Amino acid sequence: MIRIGTSKRYPQTQMRDVNIRCVIGANLAGIGDQGLAKLFGILNVPPPIDDDHYSHTVAHVLPSLRAHQQNSMSTAVEEACTQSDGRQLSVSGDGSWQRRGFSSLNGVAAVMSSSTTAKVLDIERMSKKCSTCIGALSIKHVNREKYEEIINKHSCEMNHIGSSGAMEVDGIYRLFERSQRLYNVQYVNYIGDGDAKILPKLLSNPPYDNIKINKIEDINHFSKKMLHRLQKIAQDLKKIKIDGKMGIGDMMINFKYYYRQAIVRNKTNLDEIVKSVWAIWKHKASTDLEPHHGWCSPMFCGFMKALEEDKEYDHTRHTLPLAVMNAIRPVFTELDSRDTLKRVLNGSSQNANESFHSILWSFAPKNRYSPGSIVDVCVALAVLVYNDGDQSIIPVVEPLTGGGGGYHTRVAMERCDKLRVYYEHKKKRKADVRAKMTEEERKQQEEKEQDDDEQLDDSYLPGAY
Ligand SMILES: [Zn+2]
Ligand SMILES: [Zn+2]
């Protein structure tokens, strides 16, 4: 005879410890109930809870998860207020869909703080369909009474009518609208990408009395202007002989990078940003006979570095012909104006939003449809993990299972946090080294790894303290 033990039942409920852990674990691992069934099968243990019990358990754990999620977001709001010395905050906002493209039925809109360690402040799950409404349709004509009962009793997941494209605008707007009620704060600076439709809505229907919301452009998006303008000039000059060669060649990627760096390094000081951008032009136009490195910094300028180390510096390999520099000068004049650059003053990026979304969709994979309640579970887990690290799941598990969370749970979550901190440090170190490289070294490095320079200032370290 084979005896199969099951876990203890938590007092006062029909819920078993193992089933609650299954729901949390399946979503945290991003495998869902079907993945769980496969895992159990290969592990040669009896199948996990069936579909009905699974949704039942989801409904049971959700309120708890939500409470912890709200707690984490409220704490993040207070942190942001302390950092910005008041209750008017700069936030970055972004929407993202469960599925790629605009056919998605579920999406989220989130605002994040732009503090040193960006955190999720508020989030809304948006759904175009409700799984209960759809499910109930099957009995609509067979048992009208039961159908009405289900429809009247359920809390509908559908909270968005209209295109998936409008979901982001709607969602972000809701978050702005409720910030005073929820946290007693106002989001006064909004960091979003250049073509976002959200700002017109925030300006035409101001969510706060007597406050005009200020748009700050996303640095990554903004610095691409440099690339696009230069590409256009290069295209125009393609067939024209400049300095003995055809066209101006391709040195555009580097300029975008330097431009971005000039903005990031001087973040809050408009004069310094303007100066640093112009320094790029002067630096590249320098020759041995006419060096113009007065505004350069030894941090990135090989000439200054050589000067500091009392070494010789040869301009020939770094300089661009004056004719080329003159051809691209209008781009610098345009993109180095105070008017243009004040849009990225205090600049920040949506990098944090992107990395949060990637955590979220690793829990609720983009390739399978999940009902709104499952997305809600994943949203709560993702907020907790992103804001406070994997170990913040333990206080959720503890009361739900009526135990101490479990030895192995604690060890595993601690390990997850350590691992991520390790990878983040590694990534940061790489970025630091790169920021200190001279142009030549960086070029070699870039060719070697073809890395994406837009990920550079991610400062995501939950669970590190
Ligand atoms: Zn419904
Ligand atoms: Zn220089």
Automatic annotation (TrEMBL):
Coiled-coil segments: none
Ranges of biased composition (kind: Acidic residues): 448-457
Biased composition (Basic and acidic residues): 432-447
InterPro entries assigned to the protein according to its UniProt record, in alphabetical order: Mutator_transp_dom
Signal peptide segment: none
Region Disordered: start-end pairs: 427-465
Mutator-like transposase domain: residues covered: 13-301
PANTHER family, per the entry: SI:CH211-108C17.2-RELATED-RELATED (PTHR31751)
Descriptive protein name: Mutator-like transposase domain-containing protein
Native species: Didymodactylos carnosus
Higher taxonomy: Eukaryota, Metazoa, Spiralia, Gnathifera, Rotifera
